[in-house]
Write a structure and sequence with these properties.
With 405 residues, the protein is α/β, with parallel strands linked by helices. Helix content is 40%, strand content 19%. It has 15 helices and 14 strands. The chain binds adenosine-5'-diphosphate.
Amino acid sequence: MSLASLVLVINCGSSSLKFSVLSPDEDAPLLSGLAEKLGLADACITFKSGADHKTTQSLSEASHHQALRALFARLDDMALLPRLYAIGHRVAHGGRDFQQSVLIDAQVIARIRELSALAPLHNPANLIGIDAAMALLPTLPQVAVFDTAFHQTLSPAAYTYAIPLEYQHNHQVRRYGFHGTSHRFIAAEAVKRLDLDPDDHGILIAHLGNGSSVCAVKNGISVDTSMGMTPLEGLVMGTRCGDLDFGAAAYIARCSGQSFEAVYEMVNNESGLLGISGLSSDCRALQEARRQGDERAALAIEVMVHRLARHLGAHLASLHRFDALIFTGGIGENSALVRELTAQKLAIFGIALDSKKNEYLYGGRDGVISLPGSPLVAVIPTNEEKMIAQDAAAIASTLCAAVSG
Ligand code: ADP
């Protein structure tokens, strides 16, 4: 390993900062963690290194900038700071402008700021992380990796909403899709691990976590996805409703006297698994409640699975052939129940699972879970940090080559 071979990956939220320090060739980070409750009295930062080693440090009222300082102090103690050669930032929305990851400069920052109109909860928070990292380590190349970029290959038929086209032309109202970094990582891993023809394959990816989306990938390229202009569209998620008749939303606003903003808040933060179960947004908790006979928990899981199967079936229509269905994300990687129920609904497409193999895969294990004769169904753990690190490393290397050449 060369001296400077590590990438710092930052995923910055409005009051949190998630980080990983890793070599782009390795799956596991050397150090990772989360600074949370930033700006509040009980702000803290947790560092994880190795399999189980975890330490938490209080950061009373710390800003993102101060949280990064604490991280850099820790990296210095571990002699990792001089080994950093790039920083990769997860950025939520790249609009039409960013089809791939880019080196961050003043123009890129200005454009990410303008795109905040499309992602008001995420882009401004991502920029806080970028500003803090640039202020503290100004000489390191910093790279923006967009959640939307992988889906910029969608055709107009797939990304256009059927409303007056002027809204698309004048206000950028169209489908963009998210989780692109995860879908891109899984698409590449699927080709390698399932021995698919890189130039002729069709796969479906179900990324199921707190946020969930489906992606149809044709020969390495995203051709359809379930999230839309915002991450609200599509599947039933932890607290998001996914697809909802706009007429129902308008009716709710009218009959309850709630403002449009209040309804928007409800469909984003009080709906999905939480809204149906009235119990939790967490799939694992709902599986347990279902096991104990809780009817609303059971219904929440049924609705989630029904919607997922419906979207997977619909996304097949965007493929020219069907080689594999991949499950990933916290639920996709761990819930044999959700995979089994979904597969049962997809029997019409010839999908059948080996229940023993399905039960065996959780906690980071990967492999094929389908029976012979079925289209391949596999579990592949996602690794967005690794994908971001690889992009940042590739762009930093090009930069070094350009400077030394
Ligand atoms: P995020 O979208 O925030 O990255 P994750 O990908 O970590 O979220 O997924 C979180 C979801 O995964 C939660 O609903 C959690 O309950 C679910 N999950 C994690 N482990 C299991 C498990 N063993 N069985 C079922 N669901 C699980």
